[in-house]
Specification:
Layout (H helix, E strand, L loop, with lengths): L2 H6 L2 H13 L3 H11 L5 H17 L3 H18 L2 H17 L3 H18 L2 H17 L3 H18 L2 H24 L3 H24 L3 H17 L3 H9 L10 H17 L3 H14 L3 H17 L3 H40 L2 H21 L11 H8 L7 E7 L2 H8 L1 H18 L5 E6 L2 E6 L4 H17 L13 E7 L6 H17 L5 E2 L23
Parallel strand pairs: 4-5
Antiparallel strand pairs: 1-3, 1-4, 2-3
Organism: Actinoplanes couchii
InterPro entries: Diguanylate_Cyclase, GGDEF_dom, Nucleotide_cyclase, Rev_trsase/Diguanyl_cyclase, TPR-like_helical_dom_sf
Protein name: GGDEF domain-containing protein
Length: 550
């Protein structure tokens, strides 16, 4: 073993440390440790180290190096049958191809990653491939598919306890909602545009908190910038600028790309708000701090616009010349990089199979993707419909319907006293009890964590309350000791009628309020509407799956 490895620790320890650095967005440090770990003679460990190295190079914008290393990583994975690492490498290659403007190849690569990940049976590999698919679909502007894959990846992340990936998926969905908001505004539907931007703001706020909680500075800054942009979109420019003014650069943690991103975002919002002098200051700083020609080009283009709007035509012209020169350089570098990438991809394809076989495989995977999309509407643990499916059902309104939110009482205690495996069995059994107690045209949904939703069709208050009480009683009466000795489970529920509001989110908020009222009133009970004259509530929900002591 090389002396450097002996001094630094075992290869396994090195790889563990590298993964910790990667999880905190410290990609250069992770790369150095992964290089040492990859020198191990253990091929299983080498496959994982090379896979992490590919991801580090990609995050450091070393795309050609990442692709060249991906070829080596795949060969090791194929030799030892490590399909989990293989899937992650394919997913990373898909990101690279997307960045380098090759969306067709990126789609083929992510289909491969999804198939290999599914076959591996490894939940982390499935989550990584699914999360990347959500990103690919976002950049291809196929937003329905983006939501489906992001929500599925977020659910897998929660099952794994991976808060960072969960937060990243929440913020990706925030970006997708902002794209929909921009489309709505372009179509003249300002009401929808503001509603969608409001959803995006809530998601970005959640993503910021998740990133802060886990010390992931890059994701925190990205989500913070997205939040500021969504606030500015709906006319809350001052609030957006106050948010950005509150961000303090940390030279020890913030890479130049993070600093440039925040400065450019600050400048763009000032520009859109008519604060041209401030915009010029931020954009000049972004231009000076830019870590790449592409970032310089973006900052220069915005700065030229700011100078022009501020009446400084000379400054605008001089800066536009810089932008024009940078755009030619970036285009030339992109062409050269594409050439390198094409060579590396050809070598990788030849190492795996003939080009004709690969094309046939991609075609088959496209068909398989239809099945994956169908599964994206299902909860993987219980087989119930998921939150995305519920949103689709509620989109047409809830008039004449009712919504019931059901939550397991003291579920944390079940996990702590009997194990998470027993907790999963409880959720699966509860899904069966809920389905059996409902009518054929009712829909049972796993809302998130230990919380379920039941959409009751064509019902009035008396009928809905009767169904809700029947559900509660069946849960309480079930022999839970058949799952674990000494186990007892009850559930609380909150009921709301669709006619309480024309906005489904308000109806859902009412059910949520009543669920927590039932919890606070002693649990194992149902809370229904107290009177038809009840005042409207603001549509603010806790995020499904949030860990609350209930």
């Amino acid at each position: 073993m090389p002396q450097q490895l002996l001094d630094a620790g075992s290869p396994e320890a090195l790889l563990t440390r590298a993964m910790v650095h990667f999880g905190h967005a410290e990609h250069a440090a992770a790369r150095e440790l992964a290089v040492m770990a990859a020198a191990s003679g253990d091929q299983n460990l080498r496959a994982r180290a090379l896979t992490l190295l590919v991801r580090c190079h990609q995050m450091l914008d070393e795309q050609v190096e990442a692709l060249a290393l991906a070829r080596d990583a795949l060969e090791v994975c194929w030799a030892i049958g490590d399909t989990a690492s293989e899937a992650i490498v394919h997913a990373t290659v898909a990101r690279i191809l997307l960045i380098t403007s090759d969306p067709v190849s990126a789609m083929a690569e992510i289909m491969t990653a999804l198939e290999v990940a599914e076959g591996s049976g490894d939940l982390t590999a499935r989550m990584t491939a699914t999360a990347t698919a959500g990103t690919v679909y976002y950049y291809l502007e196929q937003l329905d598919h983006c939501f489906e894959f992001c929500e599925r990846a977020a659910e897998m992340a929660r099952m794994l306890g991976d808060e960072v990936t969960n937060g990243a998926m929440i913020d990706t969905m925030a970006c997708a909602n902002m794209s929909l908001a921009e489309q709505a505004r372009a179509a003249g539907d300002e009401t929808a545009a503001l509603a969608l931007s409001g959803i995006a703001q809530g998601q970005s706020r959640e993503a910021v908190e998740v990133a802060r909680r886990n010390g992931h500075r890059r994701y925190e800054v990205t989500a913070l910038g997205n939040l500021a942009e969504s606030l500015a979109f709906c006319g809350r420019t001052e609030e957006a600028l106050e948010l950005l003014d509150g961000w303090t650069q940390d030279p020890a943690q913030d890479a130049p790309s993070i600093v440039t991103h925040m400065l450019a975002t600050h400048g763009a919002i000032c520009l859109s708000g008519g604060r041209y002098a401030e915009a010029i200051g931020h954009l000049r700083a972004a231009l000076a701090a830019a870590e790449s020609k592409a970032s310089e080009m973006t900052a220069a283009e915005l700065l030229a616009d700011a100078y022009e709007r501020n009446g400084d035509l000379r400054g605008a012209l001089d800066t536009y010349k810089i932008f024009h020169s940078l755009s030619k350089t970036v285009a030339s570098e992109a062409a050269q990089r594409s050439g390198h990438i094409a060579v590396v991809r050809m070598e990788t394809a030849q190492a795996k199979a003939a080009a004709e076989q690969e094309r046939a495989r991609v075609t088959a995977l496209q068909h398989a993707n239809q099945e994956l999309l169908r599964q994206s509407l299902e909860d993987p643990l219980t087989g119930l419909a998921n939150r995305r499916h519920l949103d689709e059902l509620m989109a047409g309104g809830l008039s004449g319907h009712a919504i019931l939110l059901v939550d397991v009482d003291h579920f944390k205690r079940v996990n702590d006293e009997h194990s998470h495996l027993v907790g999963d069995q409880v959720l699966r059994q509860l899904a069966v009890l809920l389905r059996d107690a409902c009518r054929d045209d009712d829909t049972v949904v796993r809302f998130g964590g230990e919380e379920f939703a039941v959409l009751l069709s064509e019902t009035d208050l008396a009928t809905a309350a009767s169904v809700a009480e029947r559900l509660r009683a069946r849960v309480a009466a079930f022999d839970w000791t058949s799952i674990a000795a000494g186990l007892a489970v009850t559930a609380s529920a909150g009921l709301a009628l669709g006619d309480e509001s024309g906005d489904p989110s308000v109806v859902l908020a009412r059910a949520d309020e009543r669920l927590y009222a039932a919890k606070h009133a002693g649990r194992n009970r149902v809370h229904s509407p107290s009177s038809p004259a009840e005042q409207p509530l603001e549509p603010v929900l806790h995020y499904p799956g949030a860990q609350l002591e209930v």
